[in-house]
Each structure stands twice: as structure tokens, then as C-alpha cells.
Amino acid sequence: MAPPSSPETPAPRGARRKRPWPDQVHAWPYLVRLEMLVATAVMALLTVWSIAVDAPLEEPANPTKTPNPSKAPWYFLGLQELLVYFDPWFAGVVLPGMIIVGLMVIPYLDVNPKGNGYYCFRDRRFAVSTFLFGFLGLWISAILVGTFARGPGWNLYAPGQYWDAHKVVAITSRDLPPLIGVSDPVAGMIVGAVVVFGFLFGIPWLFWRLRRDKSPGLRQLGAVRYAVTAFFFMSMLGVVVKIGLRLGFDVKYVLATPWLNL
Amino acid sequence: MASEKKGWLSALRRSYVWKSVFRHEYEDTARNRALQISSNVFLHLHPTKVRRHALRLRFTWCMGGVTFLLFLVLVVTGVILMFYYRPTGEYAYHDMKYLEFDVPFGMILRNMHRWTAHAMVITVWLHMFRVFMTGSYKPPRQFNWVVGVGLLVLTMLLSFTGYLLPWDQLSMWAVTVGTNMGSATPLAGHEGPFAELLGVDARSDVRALFTGGRLIGPATLLRFYVLHCVFIPIVASVLMIVHFWRVRKDGGISGPL
User: Is the domain of A213 the same as that of A148?
Assistant: First the structure.
């Protein structure tokens, strides 16, 4: 069988020897030496940190005494923060699942051969900006808000501001259909479904129809990869839109049904 | 090749026993540099030669390696902590106080385990960030990225299950908040959409599978302890073996083609 040489498949073992990298150095001592230096520095840092700062230990666990606020570990605070804007089934289960699956499929969606093995923005603008926005703009930002700006009742407090446990914040949010004049619940469900599914699938479909013939990038992507990319991308954007709708227009749910709300 | 120097050290190096342990000379030759890596089971994780840019901290940030180092630190400190800690409702919190006030170096041991765990979550994220920014998930490394995402999730689950073990207010309520999300799982959680289709209640839904009951209690503590100390570390170790092996098999560390 002839060894395949397309970039889709790993190079066979012999291929490396035929085309040796001209800039290779021995792992011993150059790499091992560096690893030992970094390991020593990290261990020194950990030791100093562990001597200087004690791990927290509060009162014994007491199921009858709920602290306000109760916060998840800091690395999950981004998800807890989203509980303000979404119901738990979405913020706590479906969205994390989508984040994990969405991350896993990245290599199978990104068919751009450029930018492999070096830092580069110009060759992969969409990929890099989407990832930066999701990682820094959503994940890290939400963790920072949840960690430093949320107090009793999960209300917003400036860092250092007095935590008033009796602070009352009126909940005035309403669902989107009544806000735009559709008061009948069934008609509201239809409107909500049209908005949600139109956003998730309609816009990408329209974009595909309009741009497919003009964009070589879209043709290279293909219909299936485009559909999956668009679904995850629009879902991520949808989280932002929902946050905007809540903060800007007091929208509670876009789609409200007896079974689930979005 | 072999030096004919005099002295007991040279004699030792020429001895039958020494040579049975160290198969090659230490003289600075290309062959010995390669053997130094390939004849050592631990260093054999590396290729004998690497491309020069792989040494630049600006390129790798050394984050994958640091993450592995932190994992090893956590294994060592964690195993020592296991000698002093009993995962039961009666003793868990008491043993934290025991570690703090009575066990020699107990507090620094616990501090190191906790801070290293936090640091590992951060370094895993930074490692993912670096790998994305250098496009290192592109062919032929697609699948290793998938394995990496699995390790990322396991790291956070390890940290989360360990969070409960001090059995104080902080840990109990953080885990309550975290696991309450599980009760909202569609179909399988008792407060989730369509729960009535499966007919699950608070004692039989997917959350109760992990917490061992309706509330965070001693049953949860034991489950999280076993998950934290045995199950997840084993799964993570297996994935790490695959991850490191594939870095080598996919052509070593990524770089300009």
C-alpha cells in the first residue's frame, strides 16, 4: 500500500527521515535541561505560595445553614453566572455539554490548512476571533463577574461595596412575546419558536444561500461542516443576545412553553 | 571509547554491575546524547531530537509540561493526605483540623494540594489556549485535541470532587450549587424538562447517582472521595498516556510545516 501523503493523514514513520528538519537539536541536554529549570521554578513558586497562604477552612458543613450567596467553585462560576439569564437545564447541563462537544469538533470543522504550528491572526481571522471571544469574552469574563461582582441574592455589587443581605431588586422582566404585543400564550409560543429557530437555523441558512456562490471559503467548508459550525457559532452568539435582551430590555424568556423556557 | 583513567570511580564505571545498569558512556557524543534519552524509560517520553523552536518558551509557554508536573505534585501530596483523612461525616472535618494543628507539615501539605489543584485548572486552560493559538489541533493532530478536551473536563471534575472533601460550609454549599444543576438535566433530572417521561424523583435522578441521596451528605462525601482519589485519576492517567504518546506519533511538537 502506498503511503498516503495528504495532510489529512499522519506522516508515516519513514517520511521524517527523508525530509529531516534542518534545525533539530538534541533533547539531551537542551530540552531536558529547560524542563528541569521550569520544574524547579514552578516547585519553588508552589512552595512559597503554600507557606505564605493558607487554604480556606470554614465552619463544619451544616445542611441547615445556607450561606448567601452560595457560590460554586470559581471555575464553574461562569456557568452559575449564566443561571441569571437561563434556566438551569440550559445553563447547567445543555450549555456545558455544548461547550465540550463544540471544543471537541473544532479540528474537524476548521479545514483551513494555514496557521498550523505558529501564531498567526491574519491567516485565520474567523477561527481566532471566535475562540478569543468565547474564551476571554464569555468564559473568563463570566467567571470574573461571578467571582468579584456577585453578592447576596446573586445581586450585582461593585468589588468592595457593602454586601447588603436585605437589598431588594424588583424583578420586572417579562417574556418577549407579550413585550412585543403578543399576549395569547399559544401565539406567543409560536412567535418565540420562530425567533429562536429563525436565529439558530434561519439566519445561517439565509447566509449560506446568499454567500455560497461568492465565497470560496464557504464552498471549501462544505454544507455539513458549515451547518455544524453555524449551529455552535449561533448558539454562542445566542447566549450573548439573550444576555443583551435581559439587561437592555428586561426580557425574561424568548420562548416560554409549559415544558421548557429559553 | 572507554576511558582508561585510573582511580576508583573509573574502576566503578568499568565494573560489571555498573554497566548492567547504565548501558552507555557519558562522554559527550551525539550517540550518547541520543542514548541518554532512548535508554531511560522516563526520559523516553521525549524524542531524541527536537526542533529548535520547541525550546522557545514563547512558543509553548511550557504549559503542557507544567500541567503534568502539577498533576504529579497532586498525586504525591494527595497520597500523603490520604494517610490522615477519613472520608466520613464524623471524621472528615475533624481530620482537616488535625492536619492543620497536629500533623507535622500538615497545613503546608494541604495548602500545596489545594493551590496546586487551582493552578492546574489554570494551566490546563492556558495550554488549550496556546494550542489553539498555534493551530496545533490541525492535521495530523486533530484527535489529540479531542483527547485534550477530555483531559480538560477531567481536570475540572477532579478539582470539583476534591472541593467537597474538607467538609466545611464552603465545600458543602459549593458542591450543592454545582450538583443542583444536575437535577435540571432534561429527562434524567427530577427538576429538568420532561422528567415525568422517565418518572425520576429526587432520590433516583442523575444527580442522586453522584450525590448518593437527596442532599449533600456523608454518602456524597464517600462517593466524591472514591471518584477523586481512584476513579477519575485512573481515567485521566489513561488519557494522559494516549495524549503524550500521540504527541510523539503525530510528529512531535507542532511547528511551521
Answer: no
